[in-house]
């Protein structure tokens, strides 16, 4: 990992450790205050525990122009961003996409092109609905590996991460605690429930927390929709298309709406926030990956709305192309953060239990 | 003077806790309020930016505070640290009002947090601000803005014109221009004069040039001096201040909390001649930190040196600067500019005076003491033997000065025995009305909040 990022984070963490005023904001500070010296692994864990709520920055008595020049959200964002590149498998893919929105857009276009090619080359004879454009078997042939490869890649990354931070062995309770913290986004509530500082300097609001949860739960609902449909297809001989009141449609439409609203609002909030409190060079990559996720949701909704029209084949190809790009890029873009964050939360629960014992 | 002076109901001079409490209270009473803050926006809030808690009386659990803390106990704590040099009537007013302040603070945006790690001894008496004092200041500026309070930054007040028994107008400079406003009421909440080292030197002599200023560089006492020159009643000894011993490597101004050193009770402290000068283990550190500023100020060159050994390194909160480290005492002395043979002799004498250390207990008075040396060390006295050895330099860090404006129970200022009909003062600029000497953690914010609210209420009533 880049030593200048680590050294800067270490310098700042040592100042924070002598102050402690921010202890109540989030999980980072109790974890930070439990150390006297900060190894690279400690800093990597603190960085991934940080949700970039920025409360500590706006409350800090040592931000520039003070000579101590603290900007902990930025220092940790840089380490965090760098750690995602360091632990990625393969690393070169993360270096290409993590900070680069244009590359994400290009990859999405390649995804579109691949699907167009597939639709032409593997055009199904006699399928119905979507399967008239691309047969079910062709879809499975493309998307099964596109789903399994990212999972395997992320598994390798998380293993590297866990080794680097030298966390102990988690118990089931630690894992539950980690999931609970992610499910409620407790670390974006500011410690007082008023939310975080993001879109309007030191004003606290729950906007970002709600928007983040819209994206997260929207995505999970969409994922659940696909999973349910897969089960229905294989185990209950109930192939698509499904009616409006079927489980896949209810999950998919509600999830798609949440996803689109969440992504649009997230980008709007991001545009109003101060980029200097994040990983400045990764801004384009972050917006690119949120945009891609939003497009997945939007094209999915359009597919539902316009599925009976002549535009369906084109929209289907765009949707599937975006999904393909999204899946394949997940380990190498901002989307990876969810896995690291969850792991960091579990590791923090493990640490707390260890410290208490 | 470019245009006709603006008129305001209430002008508040200063931009910290007391000023904001006054401004919000006056605005809520219907007054048109302007804040003249001399600092630029990033440094707004004066010393309040560096504070962290509010000492609060309470009957039963209140907000983050546990148990209860009665008026009598609070007053007794205050009398102990000030050695009785306290205006009891005003102190009781501050203490009694503190209880209703806490929910008021919450209503105006302040959020509290449980006592910070390393400060458990204050969990009952002091309510900690979430994010510290700058978090409080930010919340108050937000609320003040919502209440229609107008804020001018980098507005340095130079003069308040006395016109009979009232203030006629205020002159200030901003963007290189001199401006004037005509307020119906004025609240002065612009702090002490500690950032003006020339003024400190007039009181302390040249020694003051070696003092560090823990807080804002903007509290230069300009308004205070202007009012005192016009005969406004003053209070307090110019040498009295809240001063602590801080890391000698701290910046000249604005080092704040991170420059404090908590290691004195586990150390020996010597002066530049490598001689001990005070009982390092007299009491637990939260009860002694405020006297060490003056102790160090009395030493040659106003500097002290803390010496500990390896076994004590992790017994205190980490500070912002790493200690100086050496494998031998002579090596440490060399790095710190102390005479090595003298330091060796002092440590040897001290070590020889240590007795049974089996009862050592870092967080309570353990009675592990020296015998037969002067000064003694009456608690936590363990020989300094285990390398590596560590050292910190200590300097006097001034938080705020006590010479200020004398006020009555309405926070009103006076000339002779006559009140100035439209002038009130709050916060550090009048804290000398209550604190004769010594300091009680979190009491500055109590004075600022209580008297800021009183001043704001009175100022608005007068303007109406």
Order of helices and strands of chain A: HHHHHHHHHHEEHHHHH
The CATH topology name of the largest domain in chain B reads: FAD/NAD(P)-binding domain
User: Domains counted in the coordinates of chain A: how many?
Assistant: 1
Number of domains of chain B: 2
Largest interface: A-B, 33 and 33 residues
Any idea of the CATH class of the largest domain in chain B? Alpha Beta
Low-pLDDT residue intervals, each spanning 5 or more residues of chain B: none
Given helix and strand content, the structural type of chain B is alpha/beta
* Helical content class of chain A: 55-70%
Q: Which radius of gyration of chain B do the C-alpha atoms yield?
A: 23 Å
- Which whole number gives the mean pLDDT of chain B? 95
What structural class do the secondary elements of chain A suggest?
Answer: mainly alpha
Describe the secondary structure blueprint for this structure:
The complex is a heterodimer of chains A (357) and B (464).
Chain A: H1 3-19, H2 28-33, H3 40-49, H4 55-58, H5 72-87, H6 91-97, H7 101-121, H8 130-133, H9 136-165, H10 172-184, E1 196-197, E2 204-205, H11 207-235, H12 247-272, H13 283-305, H14 312-329, H15 337-356
Antiparallel strand pairs in A: 1-2
Chain B: E1 6-13, H1 17-28, E2 33-36, E3 53-55, H2 71-82, H3 88-107, E4 112-113, E5 126-129, H4 133-146, E6 150-152, E7 156-163, E8 166-174, E9 177-188, H5 197-204, E10 212-213, H6 222-229, E11 234-235, E12 241-247, E13 268-270, H7 289-297, E14 303-309, E15 324-326, H8 329-336, H9 340-353, E16 389-401, E17 404-405, E18 412-415, E19 418-425, H10 443-463
Parallel strand pairs in B: 1-2, 1-9, 2-6, 9-19, 10-16
Antiparallel strand pairs in B: 3-5, 4-5, 7-8, 8-9, 11-17, 12-16, 13-14, 14-16, 15-16, 18-19
Structural summary, described in words:
- Chain A: It comes from Primorskyibacter sedentarius.
- Chain A: Keywords: Membrane, Transmembrane, Transmembrane helix.
- The complex is a heterodimer of chains A (357) and B (464).
- Chain A has one domain.
- Chain A is elongated.
- Helices cover 68% and strands 1% of the residues of chain A.
- With 357 residues, chain A is an all-alpha fold.
- The model of chain A has no long low-confidence stretch (mean pLDDT 94).
- In chain A, helix 3 crosses helix 5 and helix 5 packs across helix 6.
- In chain A, a hairpin with a 6-residue loop joins strand 1 and strand 2.
- Chain B has 464 residues and is an alpha/beta fold.
- Chain B folds into two domains: 295 residues, FAD/NAD(P)-binding domain (3-Layer(bba) Sandwich); 155 residues, Alpha-Beta Complex (Flavocytochrome C3, Chain A, domain 1).
- Chain B is built from ten helices and 19 strands.
- In chain B, the strands form four sheets. In chain B, strands 1, 2, 6, 7, 8, 9, 18 and 19 form an eight-stranded mixed beta sheet that branches. In chain B, strands 10, 12, 13, 14, 15 and 16 form a six-stranded mixed beta sheet that branches. Chain B has a three-stranded antiparallel beta sheet with strand order 3-5-4.
- Chain B is elongated.
- Chains A and B meet through helix 1 and helix 4 of A and helix 4 of B.
């Amino acid at each position: 990992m880049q030593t200048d990022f680590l050294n800067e984070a270490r310098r700042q963490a040592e100042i924070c450790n002598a102050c402690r005023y921010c202890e109540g904001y989030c999980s980072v500070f109790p974890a930070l205050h439990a150390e006297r010296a900060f190894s690279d692994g400690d800093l990597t864990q603190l960085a991934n525990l940080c949700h970039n709520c920025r409360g500590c920055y706006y409350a800090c008595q040592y931000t520039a122009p003070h000579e101590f020049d603290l900007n902990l959200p930025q220092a940790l964002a840089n380490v965090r961003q760098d750690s995602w590149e360091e632990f990625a498998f393969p690393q070169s893919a993360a270096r290409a996409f993590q900070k680069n929105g244009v590359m994400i857009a290009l990859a999405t276009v390649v995804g579109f092109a691949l699907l167009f090619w597939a639709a032409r080359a593997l055009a199904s004879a006699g399928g119905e609905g979507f399967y008239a454009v691309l047969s079910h078997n062709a879809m499975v042939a493309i998307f099964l590996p596109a789903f399994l490869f990212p999972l395997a890649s992320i598994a390798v990354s998380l293993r590297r991460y866990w080794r680097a931070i030298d966390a102990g062995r988690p118990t089931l309770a630690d894992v539950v605690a980690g999931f609970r913290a992610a499910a409620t986004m407790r670390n974006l509530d500011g410690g007082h429930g008023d939310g975080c500082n993001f879109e309007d300097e030191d004003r606290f609001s729950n906007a970002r927390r709600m928007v983040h949860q819209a994206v997260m739960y929207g995505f999970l609902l969409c994922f659940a929709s696909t999973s349910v449909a897969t089960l229905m297809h294989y185990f209950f001989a109930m192939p698509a298309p499904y009616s409006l009141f079927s489980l896949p449609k209810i999950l998919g439409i509600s999830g798609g709406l949440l996803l689109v609203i969440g992504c649009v609002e997230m980008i709007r909030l991001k545009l109003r926030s101060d980029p200097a409190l994040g990983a400045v060079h990764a801004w384009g990559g972050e917006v690119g990956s949120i945009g891609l996720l939003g497009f997945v949701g939007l094209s999915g909704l359009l597919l539902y709305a316009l599925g009976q029209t002549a535009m369906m084949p084109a929209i289907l190809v765009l949707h599937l192309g975006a999904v393909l790009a999204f899946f394949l890029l997940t380990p190498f873009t901002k989307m990876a953060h969810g896995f690291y964050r969850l792991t960091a939360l579990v590791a923090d629960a493990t640490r707390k239990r260890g410290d208490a014992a | 003077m470019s245009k006709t002076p603006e008129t305001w109901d209430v002008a508040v001079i200063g931009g910290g806790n007391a000023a904001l409490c006054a401004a919000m209270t006056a605005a809520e009473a219907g007054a048109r309020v302007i804040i003249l803050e001399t600092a630029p926006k990033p440094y707004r809030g004066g010393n309040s930016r560096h504070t962290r808690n509010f000492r609060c009386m309470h009957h039963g659990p209140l907000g983050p505070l546990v148990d209860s803390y009665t008026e009598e106990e609070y007053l007794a704590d205050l009398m102990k640290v000030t050695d009785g040099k306290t205006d009891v009537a005003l102190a009781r007013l501050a203490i009694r009002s503190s209880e209703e302040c806490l929910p008021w603070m919450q209503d105006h945006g302040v959020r509290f947090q449980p006592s910070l790690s390393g400060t458990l001894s204050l969990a009952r008496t002091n309510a900690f601000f979430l994010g510290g004092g700058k978090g409080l200041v930010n919340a108050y500026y937000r609320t003040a803005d919502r209440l229609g309070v107008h804020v001018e930054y980098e507005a340095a007040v130079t003069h308040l014109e006395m016109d009979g028994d009232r203030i006629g107008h205020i002159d200030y400079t901003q963007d290189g221009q001199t401006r004037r406003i005509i307020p119906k009421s004025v609240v002065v909440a612009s702090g002490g004069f500690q950032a003006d080292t020339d003024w400190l030197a007039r009181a302390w002599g040249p020694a003051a040039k070696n003092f560090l200023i823990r807080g804002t560089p903007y509290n230069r006492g300009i308004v205070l001096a202007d009012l005192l020159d016009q005969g406004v009643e003053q209070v307090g000894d110019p040498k009295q201040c809240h001063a602590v011993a801080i890391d000698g490597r701290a910046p000249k101004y604005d080092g704040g909390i991170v420059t404090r050193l908590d290691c004195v009770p586990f150390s020996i402290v010597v002066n530049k001649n490598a001689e001990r000068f005070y009982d390092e283990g007299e009491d637990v550190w939260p009860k002694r930190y405020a006297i060490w500023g003056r102790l160090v100020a009395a030493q040659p060159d106003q500097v002290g040196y803390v010496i500990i050994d390896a076994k004590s390194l992790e017994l205190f909160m980490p500070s912002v600067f790493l200690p100086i480290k050496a494998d031998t005492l002579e090596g440490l002395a060399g790095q710190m500019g102390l005479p090595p043979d003298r330091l060796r002799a002092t440590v040897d004498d001290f070590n020889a005076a240590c007795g049974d250390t089996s009862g050592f207990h870092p967080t309570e008075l353990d009675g592990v003491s020296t015998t037969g040396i002067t000064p003694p060390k009456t608690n936590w006295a363990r020989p300094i033997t285990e390398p590596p050895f560590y050292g910190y330099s200590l300097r006097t860090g001034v938080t705020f000065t006590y010479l200020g404006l004398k006020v009555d129970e309405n926070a009103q200022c006076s000339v002779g025995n006559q009140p100035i009909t439209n002038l009130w003062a709050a916060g550090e600029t009048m804290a000398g009305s209550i604190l004769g000497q010594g300091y009680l953690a979190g009491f500055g914010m109590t004075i600022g909040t209580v008297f800021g609210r009183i001043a704001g209420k009175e100022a608005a009533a007068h303007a109406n």
